[in-house]
Amino acid sequence: MTKGGKKNSITRVVYKDKHHHGTQEEFFVLVNPDSLEKWRKDKTIPLVEVVESFDVFTIASGGHTGISDRPSKQMLAKYFETENTTEIIQKILQSGEVVKGDAIDGARVHGMKILNSDELS
């Protein structure tokens, strides 16, 4: 991912569910960190400038390590009380914690390989 000029690094916004006690579910979206800070102050900034994709991810094992996957619509509805992806992403962006990733090689997010810049050609 090289959007925003950041090579091989991932910035996630992680939302930890606070309403379903006893669970360790975390949901996250991949973002451009500079645009995220601007969006948090000015909601007129289009989400397309903030997120890397309109996908919500979770870690199947709970927590923040493991294999990332897209949760089912039923799971999203259970935790966010909506299946509307845009509303879910907005909630994650507004209430989530920014987690900056280190440079990575060959990381996978549900079948999407994060490519090195030399792999793009």
UniProtKB/TrEMBL annotation:
Pfam families to which the protein is assigned, alphabetical: SBDS_N (PF01172)
Q: Residue limits of the Ribosome maturation protein SDO1/SBDS N-terminal domain? A: 11-100
**Domain of life, source organism:** Eukaryota
Q: Which Gene3D superfamilies match?
A: Ribosome maturation protein SBDS, N-terminal domain
Query: What is the protein named?
Result: Ribosome maturation protein SDO1/SBDS N-terminal domain-containing protein
Question: Which species expresses this protein natively?
Answer: Rozella allomycis (strain CSF55)
